[in-house]
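ok new one. same drill as before - structure tokens go in, u give me an amino acid for every spot. 147 of them this time. try not to just spam alanines like last time pls lmao
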């Protein structure tokens, strides 16, 4: 019957009894499957959340901080997560409170931002605030150092 119409017999599901087949063009069927797979992959890429990173120093100028905050707000509005890294050098490590006050300042200027879980910690010479986003976690204002 398929040969009379110059079409192919395409097996859809061989697991059932009797097997499910249809009459159609095999090339078109394979093309449609590829197209469906590309659409699925595209939807998966759209739902992916990226982690953006902002690196700061404790002695940052107010205008530079404003530019960084503007970028943070843009990224959060796009649905991305933001990781803030405050890098200390030399004697700046003795006054880590400046880093915490800098994070508090950023949280005050970005009202839609929330911290994720236990995401604040100090590592080596960096004060890292991980997974800074709007869609996850709860508001957290207490910042402490883990050793």
């Amino acid at each position: 019957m398929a040969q009379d119409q110059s079409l192919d017999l395409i097996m859809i599901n061989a697991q059932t009894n009797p097997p499910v087949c249809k009459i159609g063009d095999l090339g078109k069927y394979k093309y449609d499957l590829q197209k469906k797979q590309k659409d699925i992959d595209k939807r998966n890429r759209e739902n992916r959340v990226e982690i953006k990173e902002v690196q700061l120093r404790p002695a940052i100028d107010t205008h530079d901080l404003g530019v960084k905050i503007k970028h943070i707000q843009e990224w959060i509005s796009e649905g991305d997560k933001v990781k803030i890294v405050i890098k200390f050098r030399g004697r700046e490590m003795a006054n880590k409170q400046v880093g915490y006050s800098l994070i508090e300042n950023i949280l005050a200027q970005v009202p839609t931002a929330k911290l994720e879980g236990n995401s604040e910690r100090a590592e080596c010479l960096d004060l890292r605030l991980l997974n800074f986003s709007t869609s996850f976690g709860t508001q957290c204002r207490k910042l402490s150092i883990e050793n």
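Confidence is low (pLDDT under 50) at residues 118-147. and btw The longest strand covers residues 81-87.
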